[in-house]
Write a structure and sequence with these properties.
Layout (H helix, E strand, L loop, with lengths): L7 E11 L5 E13 L9 E2 L12 E5 L2 E4 L7 H14 L16 E5 L3 E5 L2 E5 L14 H13 L9 E7 L5 E4 L11 E7 L2 E5 L9 E5 L4 E4 L8 E3 L6 E2 L6 E7 L3
Parallel strand pairs: 3-16
Antiparallel strand pairs: 1-2, 4-5, 5-14, 6-9, 7-8, 9-17, 10-15, 11-14, 11-17, 12-13, 12-15
The chain binds N-(carboxycarbonyl)-S-(naphthalen-2-ylmethyl)-L-cysteine (MD3) and fe (iii) ion.
């Protein structure tokens, strides 16, 4: 049997087989089927927790000088990260920021840690207080900070100590146009990004925005460390495709850890 790569699930079952007549035949053997992973949820493609374990691809991949993809690095911690996320977002809800040009972003954002990134008609900046509440941003969960530091170390950046974590939420259709992250004070520190929930197509441009960006599929548990020459590269996210994730439903969450102050 010939099957294309990536979108099939191997089902191992035994005993009962359903046939077209509706009769049931018990077979005393183990057999294997390949089935499309279509969910019962309105025919949406369900992304389950253990799909796409790329056994053939290396767990660590250099995307460009200074940009290291750690595939599945946060997969094990995923449920714990998401439990903390609920608490953080209860204190500092997601909101759609307005750009200096007057556009409302399709990605909903919040922050935790000493500093938070905000945008308004007056520009982009980091703030110690959440403009919605007037209160400090919620603390960065220790498990998040530890994961970001471990990832940075793995990519060759020692003692990463982020003071800001931007939380991005994508719903189907949400996108992030090509941009640079240059509102931070320390470009010698990397940015560590953690992808959770639905997969997204990440666009990675050249430092000067000329040329066609490279495209990478980032999925639940993938961590990317962006440092050195990649730190000021143009990047963005293509409109999120519809889908359903076992932990996050129709959402993608991206956490970016930064040294901003
Ligand atoms: C490359 N977020 O929050 S994460 C952002 O998926 C942002 O939500 C995207 O771009 C997201 O600013 C992309 C990957 C990422 C983050 C920061 C970078 C890539 C980067 C900084 C420099 C170069
Ligand atoms: Fe960015």
């Amino acid at each position: 049997m010939v099957a294309s790569r990536g979108f099939y699930r191997v089902n191992l079952r035994h005993g009962v087989n359903e046939v077209g007549t509706g009769q049931r035949h018990t077979l005393g053997i183990i057999f294997m089927t390949l089935s499309k992973r279509l969910s019962a949820d309105n025919g949406r493609v369900t992304t389950d927790l253990f799909e796409d374990i790329h056994t053939s691809e290396p767990a660590q991949q250099t995307l460009a000088p200074g940009a290291v993809l750690l595939r599945g690095f946060a997969r094990e911690a995923g449920a714990e990260l998401l439990a903390r996320l609920e608490l953080v977002l209860a204190a500092a809800p997601l909101r759609h920021l307005v750009t200096p040009g007057g556009h409302t972003m399709s990605v909903a954002m919040s922050n935790c840690g000493p500093l938070g990134w905000v945008s308004s008609r007056s520009g982009y900046r980091y703030e110690a207080l959440d403009p919605l509440s007037g209160q400090p941003w919620p603390p960065m969960p220790e498990s998040w900070r530890a994961l970001a530091r471990r990832a940075a170390t793995q990519a060759g950046f020692d003692k990463f100590a982020p003071d800001a974590c931007l939380i991005n939420q994508y719903l189907p259709g949400s996108k992030l146009s090509l941009h640079q992250d240059k509102d931070e004070n320390d470009f010698s520190a990397p940015i560590v990004s953690v992808s959770l929930g639905l997969p997204a197509v990440f666009l990675f441009g050249t430092p000067l925005r000329n040329g066609r960006p490279q495209r990478y599929r980032l999925q639940h548990g993938d961590v990317v460390v962006w440092g050195g020459p990649a730190r000021l590269a143009f990047h963005g996210v293509a409109p999120l495709a519809d889908g359903n994730h076992a932990l996050l439903g129709q959402r993608r969450i991206n956490l970016t850890f930064r040294c901003a102050g």
